[in-house]
Specification:
Elements lengths: L21 E3 L4 E2 L2 H10 L10 H5 L10 H17 L2 E11 L9 E13 L6 E11 L5 E12 L25 E3 L5 E3 L1
Antiparallel strand pairs: 1-4, 2-4, 3-6, 4-5, 5-6, 7-8
């Protein structure tokens, strides 16, 4: 069988952004105690409110808080598929607000709106885009908001890199033997 390359989602390029565009990022993320503990230890955050349950139980929250840097990382990460898959440099992150506590078991969802865009004076292969991202928990409470500015490739930028490796041999596109229905709903090969 002959194969035909069908490109998958390649992300947005500078030309694709329009002021006021709102992207609801498709993947929610439920946080676990393990996520919080590993992230806290990985980043060397020694505040016990994130990983010591008896200590956190004495706080006003009564249980461990998710590390706020993890909340921010998830907010930015959730936006990548829609806004920054073709970004090659973050320039600024500001107006970061952590407005509601996040706990293990919460599910986070993010959305972003395009605030501004302009051509780059020093990099003709790119443009500068500014977005605001906000993150909601499963109850619709806003837990995080931030503004981010980044350099994003133009669609025709020669600097874009196709990192997919060249295969040593073509993919096998031979269809499997025809399957027939068996009584009772199963299948069998001929």
């Amino acid at each position: 069988m002959e194969t035909h390359l069908k490109p998958g989602w390649e992300g947005r390029f500078y030309e694709d952004f329009e002021l006021g565009d709102l992207y609801r990022h498709p993947l929610g993320r439920t946080l676990s105690e393990t996520d919080n503990t590993w992230f806290t230890l990985l980043t060397m955050n020694t505040n016990q409110i994130h990983f010591n349950a008896p200590y956190a139980a004495r706080s006003e929250f009564g249980r461990p808080l998710v590390d706020s840097m993890l909340t921010i990382a998830i907010a930015v990460g959730q936006s990548v598929t829609d806004v920054s898959q073709n970004v090659f440099a973050n320039l600024q992150m500001d107006e970061v607000t952590l407005s509601h506590p996040v706990f293990a078991g919460d599910t986070l969802w993010s959305e972003s709106v395009v605030l501004a865009k302009r051509e780059s004076a020093s990099r003709p292969h790119a443009g500068i885009v500014m977005i605001r991202t906000r993150t909601l928990n499963q109850d619709g409470a806003e837990v995080c908001s931030l503004r981010r500015t980044f350099l994003v490739y133009r669609r025709d930028a020669a600097e874009r890199i196709d990192a997919f490796p060249q295969a040593a041999r073509p993919i096998d596109a031979t269809p499997p033997p025809a399957a027939t229905r068996r009584p009772g709903g199963g299948t069998r090969s001929r």
